Amino acid sequence: MATRRGLLAGAASVMFAAPLLPRAARAADPVLKVPHPTIGVVVPQLLIEFWNDYLAFMKLGAKQLGVNLIVVDAQNSPERMIRSIQDLAARKVDGIIFTAYWSVGTRGLSIAKDAGIPVAITDTHPDYPPQTARFPNYISFVGPSDEDMGASIGKALIDATPAGPDGKKRIGIVNGTAGTSVAVNRRKGFAALLKQHPEVIVEGEVNGDFERETALAAFQSFYIGHSDIRGVWVASGGMASGVMTALRNRGKIPGKDVVVVCIDLETGNRKALKDGELLFDMGGHWLSGGFALLALYDAIEGHTLPANVADFHMKMLPLTKSYVADFEKDFPNNLPDYDFKANSLTWNPNAKPGVFQVPNVEFFRSKILGS
Fold first, then answer.
1. Range of 299's domain?
2. Per DSSP, what are the bridge partners of residue 316?
3. Is 277 within a domain?
4. C-alpha distances in angstroms, 81 versus 100, 105, 211, 358?
5. Nearest-CA neighbor of 60 among 299, 340, 288?
6. pLDDT band of 9, cuts 50, 70, 90
7. Which of these, 297, 350, 333, lies nearest to 61 by C-alpha position?
8. How far is CA 110 from the centre of its chain?
9. pLDDT over 50 (residue 117)
10. How large is the angle between the packed helices 105-114 and 78-90, nearest 10 degrees?
11. What sign has the CA pseudo-torsion 79, 81, 85, 90?
């Protein structure tokens, strides 16, 4: 069996133990199959702000539900991701949550299946749904509606990008990690929109690998040869931060000289929205970690989601400068007021299964998107 030393050799790991509930509170609790289950979580890279927001909501859920979390950082390495899943399986955790970057979905599910461990996948999914005959241990997927986000930020970009003397709107594109469903589907959503806008010319695309520094270097090189672009479509918030830095390095003012739009709703980029450097942001999918925890917790306790609601793609929240104050009121420290037990099939027999939506998302969509 792998030891804690073995786990740490592959990736950084830390355990968060949920406190026991007071005796009076436990008296009315449901009978739990696994009191205080241990769930292992493998995160692609903790250096990225998004994944820290993701963990913060998950930790809130673990505290409310009485779950012990083991959090492992894959440090942007598919080998560490697989090794971490193997080590968690060897430790016989009660459940595993991971993100299927680098096409690790099938391998990770196979490892967990062989160990008899249920799994929830977040953000990036394999090319098959949960609860198939091949992987009955794949309990749920919770992630964003990526095509919708790609198209929505694209529309904002096209509307705001000024045309040149020839009537054409010239833009650049910064994509995320090649081959991941999030990168592929965000770009797919924008591609469908571009077919309706012949006035838009895509001068070129670079791969930012969902990392700030990678995007900064790639876009900076790209911009030297394409300084006539007036807009940039960026597939994530961290990469947008890199793009805006690259523009400043070239003496340009983001938001004035070049329009920038992105995805993720990271805390740092809300300042860019307020300052007018970033035109449009969209996200809320950092909540997928907590929602996946809830689905997996219920499955461990004998309340698996019905298959028809187990593949859940959340409707995402758009944000512009005018509504930042509303967002910060609803999401202090990026955390909504959410009652996990009230939405748990274990703790609330009347809970509606598989409803994982960003709180107040309809308000922001109606005000900003008109939908």
1. 4-144+285-369
2. none
3. no
4. 9, 10, 17, 27
5. 340
6. very low
7. 297
8. 23
9. yes
10. 10
11. positive
Q: Are strands 259-261 and 68-73 parallel, antiparallel or unpaired?
A: unpaired
Which amino acid appears at position 127 of this protein? D
pLDDT at 4: 31
Among residues 230, 264, 298, which one ends one of the domains? 264
* The pair of three-digit structure tokens given for residue 36, joined into one six-digit string: 């205080």
Q: Are residues 34 and 84 in the same domain?
A: yes
* Token pair recorded at residue 133: 């005959």
Q: Are residues 243 and 197 in the same domain?
A: yes
Let me know if residue 278 belongs to a domain: no
> 250 pLDDT exceeds 50?
yes
Answer with the residue of higher pLDDT: 334 or 73. Answer: 73
Model pLDDT for residues 271-318, shown as the tens digit of each residue = 999 999 999 999 999 999 999 999 999 999 999 999 999 999 999 999
- CATH number for position 233: 3.40.50.2300
Give me the residue label for tokens 């202090």.
332
pLDDT above 60: residue 17: no
